[in-house]
Amino acid sequence: MDLTLEYIVESFADALVAIDSSRIPFRNFAPGVGPYGEPQLLLQVATRLNSLLPCEGRICTKRTPDLLIPESWAIECKIARPFGDNGKPAENWSVNLLHPYAGNTSLLGDCLKLRSLDGNEKKAAVVIGYEHSPPQISLIPLLASFEVVAKGVMGISIGERVQSVRTRLVHPVHQQLTVTAWEIL
C-alpha cells in the first residue's frame, strides 16, 4: 500500500488523540498529550502508528529523520504551543518553526536536512500544534509564515498543506490539536 501524506496525517492525529485519552500525564504536567516533549511524544506516536498503519512494526524514531517509515516516508516533526501547561503565553514558541538557518533545530532547518537525506523515502515536515478551543492565538499565521519563508526565502520546494484537526482534548489549555504536514519536494 502506498501511504499518502493525507493518510499519515490522519493516522498521526488519531494516535495523538489516543495518547491524550489515556490521560497519562507527562512528568508533573496536567493530563493530556499537549505537554509532552518532542522525543517522548514521537516515541508514543511511533508505537501507536505501528499498530495503525499497514507497515506494522516498521516505524522507528531516529535522530534524523524523527520518524522513518522505511521505503515510504522520512518525517521531521516540531511542536507548536502558544501557551504553556500553566495557561501563560509561551515565549519564543514560533522559533521552533521559523528560525531560517541551516544547522539549527527549527522546522526550516529540518527541511534542509531532509532535502540532503539519502534514501528512497518521500520526505515530509510535520507540525503538531496545540490551541485553546476556540484558539486564543491561532496557528494559522505561523503555518502561513512557514510556507512563505520556506518557499520564498530559503528556496525549499514544499507541497500543498495537508492538515487534520482534533478537538475536545483532556488538557485544560491544549484543548485542540492540529497536525499539519508538507511534502518536501
What key phrases describe this protein's structure?
alpha+beta; 6-stranded mixed beta sheet; 5 helices; globular
TL;DR of this structure?
This protein is an alpha+beta fold and 185 residues long. The chain has one domain.
- Strands, count: 6
The secondary-structure class comes to: alpha+beta
* Helix and strand run: HHEEEHHEHEE
Unreliable stretches: none
Termini separation (Å)? 21 Å
Overall structural domain count? 1
Largest sheet entry: 6 strands, mixed
Give the topology.
Elements: H1 5-21, H2 38-52, E1 60-61, E2 67-69, E3 73-80, H3 95-98, H4 107-115, E4 122-131, H5 140-153, E5 162-166, E6 176-184
Parallel strand pairs: 3-4
Antiparallel strand pairs: 1-2, 2-3, 4-6, 5-6
Structural account:
The protein has 185 residues and is α+β, with helices and mostly antiparallel strands. It has one domain (5-184). The chain has five helices and six strands. A hairpin with a 3-residue loop joins β2 (67-69) and β3 (73-80). α1 (5-21) packs across α2 (38-52). It starts with a helix and ends with a strand. The mean pLDDT is 92.
